[in-house]
Amino acid sequence: MPSASLWSAIELGGGLRLPNRIVMAPCTRNRCTSDLSPPPDAVEHYASRAEAGLLITEATMIAPEVQGYLDTPGLFLDSHEAAWSRVTTAVHERGGRIFVQLWHTGRVAHSYFSGQQPVGASDVLDRVPRRQAGVASLYNERPRMLSSTEVEGVIAQHRESALRARRAGFDGVEVHGANGYLIEQFLRSHTNRRTDDWGGDPERRARFGIEVVRACIDVFGAGRVGLRLSPAAYFGEMTWTPGDNEAYAALLSALADLPLAYVHTGIVEDCAYDYLGGTSTEFLRRHWSGCLIANGAYTPERAEQMLREGLCELVSFGKLFLANPDLPRRLRDGLALTPYSPALRLPPTYARSPYPGPEAPVFVR
Ligand SMILES: Cc1cc2nc3c(=O)[nH]c(=O)nc-3n(C[C@H](O)[C@H](O)[C@H](O)COP(=O)(O)O)c2cc1C
């Protein structure tokens, strides 16, 4: 019977040893400079949390046209690389390890930011407004289906961004395959109506995610690339359809042959879903025997129990880490935790995209 605890060290592969099992979950800050670099305060934001076994940055755009929210940073310009390297240097100076979460939003992008129609696995529009800090809500726009040549181009964009991540000093990358963004749009039959090699049966729907992960591993090597997944279809107007579980199973089965660092649950609260036959983490565990990061409103006590029972190898905390930069120390010393409140979030910097876009956005009034 496994008996890991929050305080047992673990090696992810590729020589990366984590001194504890506490991961900082990726949390968008909606703060960046006018060229979409992380702002100067990102350095202290991450460095002050360096006691985590592993830090994962906020979702970071791999290209300008994927922007779907205010003031989210990128990793596709030299200036982004320079700004992120100040973050990684500070984290390393304090003894930490940090992965960047690489992000293609797919149909969640918006022309308000880039002036371009969003792209998706198919042209499926679910016309639901998205809450948009500071500027009311934006309606989703109908995406344009990526051509098969463009799909290859998006994989290459991930590779380019991973190269920049390596040059910026990141210890690895987390591919954002969760929360309804492009990889999930390929996985689910509701959003993937393609009839070419990137759609149709579960294996073909899984192929895009596999190729993105493979491209990042080509850059970073073994034990340096993780993948976040949301099998519960809980976010981004995703719709679960029978057959979707098989696409996740196909993806995870193919990934077993690659030297992945980990698979990471993406869910707001890791509760049971009948169509998954349990929680999201339990579903992933059934299909993935490698390193698994549980997530979703975990208390330290429930995290310890999951580790003790071998149901996961690591646990990530989002809101608790935002509210308690010194979370590992507080847990170790049994100190009280500050509860999370949305009021803890700083207002967006309103940098906006420098790329040409319509001045009159499609807002919900
Ligand atoms: C303010 C905020 C921003 C978030 N941004 C991201 C993000 O950029 N990428 C991502 O995969 N998940 C994001 N999430 C989801 C968290 O990573 C996590 O899955 C969720 O908060 C549940 O875990 P928790 O209860 O430990 O916070 C965000 C959550 C919050 C509260």
Comma- or semicolon-separated keywords:
alpha/beta; TIM Barrel; eight-stranded parallel beta barrel; 365 residues; 11 helices; binds flavin mononucleotide
Summed up:
The chain has 365 residues and is an alpha/beta fold. Helices cover 31% and strands 16% of the residues.
Q: Secondary-structure blueprint of this entry?
A:
Elements: E1 10-11, E2 17-18, E3 22-24, H1 41-47, E4 54-61, H2 78-93, E5 98-103, H3 111-114, E6 119-120, E7 129-131, E8 137-139, E9 144-145, H4 148-167, E10 172-177, H5 182-187, H6 202-220, E11 225-229, H7 244-255, E12 262-265, E13 272-273, E14 278-279, H8 280-287, E15 292-294, H9 300-308, E16 314-317, H10 319-323, H11 327-333, E17 363-364
Parallel strand pairs: 3-4, 3-16, 4-5, 5-10, 6-9, 10-11, 11-12, 12-15, 15-16
Antiparallel strand pairs: 1-2, 7-8, 8-17, 13-14
Helix pairs in contact: 1-2, 4-6, 6-7
The chain binds flavin mononucleotide.
Structural write-up:
It is a single chain. This protein is α/β, with parallel strands linked by helices and 365 residues long. The chain has helices at residues 41-47, 78-93, 111-114, 148-167, 182-187, 202-220, 244-255, 280-287, 300-308, 319-323, 327-333, and strands at 10-11, 17-18, 22-24, 54-61, 98-103, 119-120, 129-131, 137-139, 144-145, 172-177, 225-229, 262-265, 272-273, 278-279, 292-294, 314-317, 363-364. The chain has one domain (10-364): Alpha-Beta Barrel (TIM Barrel), CATH 3.20.20.70. Helix content is 31%, strand content 16%. It starts with 9 loop residues before the first strand and ends with a strand. Residues 353-365 have low confidence and may be disordered. Bound molecules: flavin mononucleotide. Flavin mononucleotide (FMN) binds at residues 25-28, 58-59, 101, 176, 178-179, 228, 266, 268, 295-298, 317-320. Flavin mononucleotide (FMN) is lined by residues 25-28, 58-59, 101, 176, 178-179, 228, 266, 268, 295-298, 317-320.
